[in-house]
Design goal:
Helix 3 runs antiparallel to helix 4 and helix 9 runs antiparallel to helix 10. The chain is rod-shaped, with a radius of gyration of 52 Å. The longest helix is centred in the middle third of the chain and has 76 residues. It folds into 3 domains: 177 residues, Four Helix Bundle (Hemerythrin (Met), subunit A); 82 residues, Helix Hairpins (Orthogonal Bundle); 165 residues, 2-Layer Sandwich (Heat Shock Protein 90), CATH 3.30.565.10. With 473 residues, it is an alpha+beta fold. It has 10 helices and 7 strands. This is histidine kinase.
């Protein structure tokens, strides 16, 4: 069944939203109730304040017999009774019976004030005192209700908070398993692609359409990179071929000149030459023609594009073929090339790209040497890592330490307009594609050594030769 990371995230947020909404609703209801009760408490406080004012005017009246105090007492009593009538629902909500009792006593108190001459002062004062006590009881009860409501709100919010934490933890586990886990698998897959240097996605399939979409896009991107790199290698190869053409043309000119000279001699003196000498001239011409053919075939083999194909090859022969292509450049600078490689040593590699890497490295060594220099090529089998180590050493100008970590970057060159900066970058890519490694040591003014390692992908008895010489590296 197809699933979606977006849907899972939306479900997670929805689950988190439910307790949040419930908390907001509960908080709104509770706070609104508290606000109503606090506002009710203000009404009760006003009511009690009026009762206290009534008591004050009442006391003054009985002490000083001032009718103005009596009138003020009546007015306040009437106003207090109006407050009780208008805000009846507030008082009844607190304590209905006690509110009715206050109303009755307040009516009686107002009646006594109107008949003050007939009523004993003690009765009026006692009734006023009872009203104060009842009002304070009502206020205390409202305070108790507010305190209880507030305590309940705290408890509710605490419980809801615990529930919310539990839901968040549950949603976290859900997202970690259903969302983060596929992303971690995708990250692991990308890291494997990065470390393996293969241009393909071999990750487990997922039900999530977003992950599958990323996998598909990544696969297309890797295929495009693979195609572009193949074109890049071929372009660099043709560029290298162009730099070699002048020297190769010189090499090709020698056998053709020899063949041409032999033909001219035959045409001029064919009547005076015996059959055996004619045969020798023909053999010489044939030899020079085959020599020219070998040079042309070597160039064609190097320039032709082939699919990446790992096979066992004789390492010594591969090196000799590369040196044959670079022969004129080596002769031009009078460079001595020393090969210390067992002639039976095998390497598991793609011939075309491997030789391209050797040509780039040896060409760099030739360019780094002024004249009468030396290039040393060593190789051996390492039984511990099960692969071939190759070292290419020269006594050229060396590489400055400040740029040593940049030499494998694309388009980085120290040759100015003569170079495009792809040689060592492609060497690194070729070695990595074989699953190998490349390292460099260099000291400015003394020379450079490139260390290459090519692993075997399968066991073979033929690769064991040269095992002891591995200590030379």
């Amino acid at each position: 069944m197809e699933s979606s990371l977006r849907l899972k995230v939306q479900i997670g947020y929805l689950i988190l939203l439910i307790p949040l909404c419930f908390s907001l609703i509960l908080s709104y209801i509770s706070l609104n109730s508290l606000w109503y009760r606090i506002k009710s408490l203000e009404t009760i406080d006003l009511f009690i304040q009026n009762l206290l004012e009534i008591r004050r005017y009442e006391k003054n009246f009985f002490l000083y017999k001032n009718n103005k105090d009596l009138e003020n007492t009546k007015k306040l009593a009437t106003r207090t009774l109006e407050i009780l009538s208008k805000k009846k629902e507030i008082f009844y909500k607190i304590d209905k019976e006690k509110s009715k009792e206050i109303k009755n006593k307040l009516n009686n108190y107002l009646l006594f004030l109107n008949k003050i001459e007939e009523i004993k002062p003690e009765i009026v004062r006692k009734l006023g005192h009872e009203l104060i006590i009842l009002g304070k009881d009502l206020r205390n009860k409202q305070l108790s209700i507010i305190d209880t409501s507030f305590s309940k709100l705290i408890v509710y919010l605490f419980i809801l908070g615990l529930i919310s934490i539990g839901i968040i933890i549950g949603v976290g586990f859900f997202l970690a398993k259903r969302v983060v886990s596929p992303l971690e698998d995708l990250e692991k897959c990308m890291k494997e692609i990065l470390t393996s240097k293969y241009f393909s996605v071999n990750c487990p399939s997922h039900r999530d359409k977003e992950v599958r979409s990323v996998m598909k896009t990544l696969d297309l991107m890797l295929k495009e990179i693979k195609a572009r790199k193949a074109q890049l290698i071929q372009s660099e190869k043709l560029a290298s071929l162009g730099t070699l053409l002048f020297g190769v043309a010189h090499e090709l000119n020698n056998p053709l000149s020899n063949a041409s000279s032999s033909c001219q001699i035959l045409m001029e003196d064919i009547d005076n030459i015996d059959k055996n000498e004619i045969k020798n001239f023909i053999k010489q011409i044939d030899h020079e023609i085959w020599r020219a053919r070998d040079i042309i075939l070597a160039l064609l083999e190097f320039s032709r594009y082939k699919q990446f194909d790992l096979s066992e090859w004789n390492l010594y022969n591969l090196i000799q073929e590369v040196l044959f292509i670079l022969k004129s450049k080596i002769k031009q600078k009078n460079i001595k090339v020393d090969i210390r490689v067992d002639k039976k040593l095998k390497i598991y590699a793609d011939k075309q790209t491997f030789q391209q890497a050797l040509i780039n490295l040896i060409s760099n060594s030739i360019d780094a040497i002024e004249n009468n220099g030396q290039i040393l090529i060593k190789a051996c089998y390492d039984p511990n890592r099960h692969g071939i180590f190759i070292a290419i050493e020269d006594n050229g100008c060396g590489i400055p330490l400040s740029i040593l970590d940049k030499i494998f970057d694309p388009f980085f060159t120290t040759k100015g307009v003569k170079g495009i900066g792809l040689g060592l970058y492609l060497v690194n890519e070729i070695v990595s594609r074989h699953g190998g490694t490349i390292e460099v040591e260099s000291e400015q003014g003394k020379g450079t050594i490139f260390y290459l390692f090519f692993p075997y992908k399968r066991h073979s008895k033929s690769q064991i030769n040269g095992e002891e010489e591995c200590k030379c590296l």
